[in-house]
């Protein structure tokens, strides 16, 4: 693994965090309504590799987005039937110092959440 520490934030800067990310492990996009409307492009981070540095009090009650500017920076994914290991899903767009070249070079895994077929790639992904 080749983890690198990135700094991240919401648009207004109230929520700031750092995350140790191995971008070579790939990124994730889903076509479910929730992800599609937010244009969610994420990287998975181990919970111990994610730290909110400031603005935790600015996060909405679900802890997913800044209550001031509305930007979703991350979400905690607990262990579940579909998810054997807890992780933090971090918005790639909220990583302030992630070079675009590194992001576009990373593998993308697509999920067909719109059809509740999470383990398959959607027929069309160009719009994601």
E-strand count: 8
How many domains make up the 3D coordinates?
A: 1
- What is the first-to-last residue Cα distance? 27 Å
Radius of gyration: 14 Å
Task: Indicate the CATH architecture.
Answer: Beta Complex
Number of helices: 2
Stretches with pLDDT under 50, minimum 5 residues: none
Order of helices and strands: EEEHEEEEHE
Helix/strand/pairing category: mainly beta
Q: Which fold name fills CATH's third level, the topology?
A: Metal Binding Protein, Guanine Nucleotide Exchange Factor, Chain A
Estimated helix fraction: under 10%
Overall average pLDDT: 91
- Share of β-strand residues: 25-35%
> CATH class, please?
Mainly Beta
Judging from the principal axes of the Cα atoms, what is the shape?
Answer: globular
